[in-house]
């Protein structure tokens, strides 16, 4: 694992990105304190693992799943399909506030 200050990272960003692509984790520091970490993104399977754990906890009664309005869920799904990327969380948040009143 490599540690680098923000100024150094800005100056040589492409070199550090190349290291990350090759599997290296890079800790970003500010005034000798770690403030962020760059690492290669994991596979999307991790979301499935999280969902399995949440389902297991819910089945054991240790977790109560959040409930959403079906209209809100459909809005989020439509936005995600239309944008081919993660929805604009601020717009979704604002929409959810407007639906309550």
Strand order of the largest sheet: 1-2-3
Question: Helix coverage percent of residues?
Answer: 55-70%
Q: Helices and strands: which structural class? A: alpha+beta
State which percent range the strand residues make up.
Answer: 5-15%
Describe the structure.
It is a single chain. This protein is α+β, with helices and mostly antiparallel strands and 101 residues long. Helices cover 55% and strands 15% of the residues. The chain has helices at residues 6-11, 13-21, 45-59, 70-83, 89-100, and strands at residues 2-5, 26-30, 33-38. Strands 1-2-3 form a three-stranded mixed sheet. The mean pLDDT is 79.
Summarize this, please?
This protein is 55% helix and 15% strand. The chain has helices at 6-11, 13-21, 45-59, 70-83, 89-100, and strands at residues 2-5, 26-30, 33-38.
Task: Sum up the structure in keywords.
3 strands; 101 residues; 5 helices; 15% strand; three-stranded mixed beta sheet; alpha+beta
Task: Describe the secondary-structure layout.
Layout: E1 2-5, H1 6-11, H2 13-21, E2 26-30, E3 33-38, H3 45-59, H4 70-83, H5 89-100
């Amino acid at each position: 694992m490599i540690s680098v200050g923000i100024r150094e990272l800005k100056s040589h960003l492409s070199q550090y990105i190349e290291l990350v692509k090759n599997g290296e984790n890079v800790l970003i520091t500010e005034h000798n304190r770690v403030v962020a970490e760059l690492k290669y993104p994991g596979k999307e399977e991790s979301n499935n693992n999280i969902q399995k754990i949440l389902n297991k906890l819910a089945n054991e009664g240790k977790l109560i799943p959040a409930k959403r309005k079906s209209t809100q869920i459909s809005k989020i799904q439509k936005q995600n399909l239309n944008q081919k990327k993660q929805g604009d969380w601020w717009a979704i948040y604002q929409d959810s506030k407007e639906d309550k009143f």
